[in-house]
Write a structure and sequence with these properties.
The chain has about 260 residues and is α+β, with helices and mostly antiparallel strands. About 40% of the residues lie in helices and about 10% in strands.
Length: about 260
């Protein structure tokens, strides 16, 4: 996979405008839930309803917007945000749309290259826009899956999302503690897209794991999963099992089971 790099080591896919994509993904989310029963269960987020999903996504957008406006330089000590959540759930869809406007206002007043604290690799304001995009996109997909629709995901956005997930996953243990279990005696897993030449090689070592930044595409791996970029994005986030018909896998089955039992968040 040929991936341009930030000087700090974080990957960036130039074709994706994260700020614009957030607005588009939020609009799709709003359209999906506008006339839906918000009491509908969301199987991909066990225990949640559509109302919970909308509230979570809008809250994340507003919380990240606060972080951007405050230009945080260290981990925040509190998460108190004026959500302005409607008293009635029939106002939730419009509230989610307004959350994207709050985010757009924060983006407009923040240089994406501004140094900031972030829990992942890229210690700049742009980290939060990229993270917000995939929080929004995945929960839009959750809503559509709950309503019986197959989510459509742009290939370039999906490619960027897979990279964003794998680059930052080693740093997610504070909220995804099972990630600490992702160790192995120099074992590799390849994720390979069938609708492009993009692939990712993850190496598990005795002291942890990481995404290999350079590798020949002809390299073998201990286990491989192949699918479209959109399906691979749903896979890494635990929305598809690696045994799904739309995916192909080969190699060490125990290694794949171990990875997927500990990597999704």
């Amino acid at each position: 996979m040929k991936t341009p790099k930030h000087p700090d080591g974080g990957s960036v896919f130039a074709p994706v405008d994260h700020r614009t994509a957030i607005a588009a993904e939020t609009a799709r989310f709003v359209a999906a839930v506008k006339d839906a029963d918000l009491a509908t269960a969301v199987p991909s987020c066990p225990g949640w309803t559509l109302a919970d999903l909308v509230k979570h996504t809008g809250s994340v957008q507003r919380w990240f917007s606060v972080l951007l406006r405050e230009r945080i330089q260290e981990p925040p000590r509190k998460r108190e945000v004026d959500l302005r959540l409607p008293d009635q759930e029939d106002g939730y869809a419009d509230w989610l749309a307004e959350s994207a406007t709050v985010a757009a206002d924060a983006f407009a007043s923040t240089d994406p290259n501004l140094p900031m604290w972030a829990w992942g690799v890229d210690q700049h304001a742009r980290f939060w826009a990229r993270r917000m995009l995939f929080e929004t996109l995945l929960h839009r997909a959750d809503a559509e899956l709950a309503l019986g629709s197959r989510p459509a995901i742009d290939r370039l956005v999906a490619v960027d999302g897979i990279d964003e997930f794998l680059v930052n996953l080693p740093f997610a243990t504070s909220f995804a503690p099972k990630v600490a279990n992702l160790r192995g005696p120099d074992k590799t897993i390849r994720f390979s897209s069938t609708d492009g030449d993009d692939d990712w090689l993850v190496r598990l070592r005795s002291d942890g794991f990481g995404l290999e930044t350079t590798h020949p595409t002809a390299d073998t791996a201990d286990a491989t999963v192949r699918g479209t970029a959109a399906d691979l994005l749903l896979l890494v986030y635990g929305r598809l099992p690696y045994t799904a018909e739309v995916l192909a896998h080969e190699g060490d089955e125990d290694l794949l089971a171990h990875w997927f039992a500990n990597s999704a968040f």
